[in-house]
Amino acid sequence: MNQHSARTATKVDPAAFRQSMRHVPTPVAIVATTSAAGQPIGLTVGSFTSVSLDPALVTFFVDKQSTTWPLMEDSGTFTVNILGHGKGERCRSFSSRGVDRFSGVDWTASTDGDPVLSEASVVLECSKHSSRVLGDHLQVVGEVSKLHVLHEDLPLVYHQGTFLNLDHLASV
Questions:
Q1: CATH class, range 25-157
Q2: How far is Cα of residue 12 from the mean position of the Cα atoms in its chain?
Q3: Which of 49, 62, 151, 168 is most buried, by the most CB atoms less than 10 A from its CB?
Q4: Which of 143, 161, 149 is nearest to 51 (CA)?
Q5: How far apart are CA 83 and CA 122, in angstroms?
Q6: Averaged in consecutive runs of 10 residues, what is the pLDDT profile of the chain (172 residues)?
Q7: Residue 118's pLDDT is what?
Q8: Which sequence spans correspond to the domains of the chain?
């Protein structure tokens, strides 16, 4: 028996885990689609990464208690709008409850009609590949069909409860 299988699993305090994970910087993206009525719907995700190059797959995680995701879940397509440095207010507006998240937002429709935010640095047009429940979150995997680099910005990075100031990296 290897030494890892002999360990007893212990429950980690969720608050302590959250506090520890604040030390891991995360990219910020807005995932968006359109409703059956053609209305734009979107939410901020802070756990986004690539999964595979061939096929091109990306993944993000949504809290199971999200009130926005159920409105988006049945859509077969979505865009991932990766935000650039200095777009923290846009991130906050798409994570606010009870507001029109697209009010004042300049966007165009993707090939599938999903929102492409003009403020995004990179936009990935995706079709839903799969989804599954993992703990208190839903993991969504998308297959990228098109990508657009709109701006050569540094990324918007969330770390320890705030957005990192990357101004000093701009000249590197």
A1: mainly beta
A2: 25
A3: 62
A4: 143
A5: 7
A6: 59 83 79 92 92 95 92 93 88 86 95 95 96 95 95 78 68 50
A7: 94
A8: 25-157
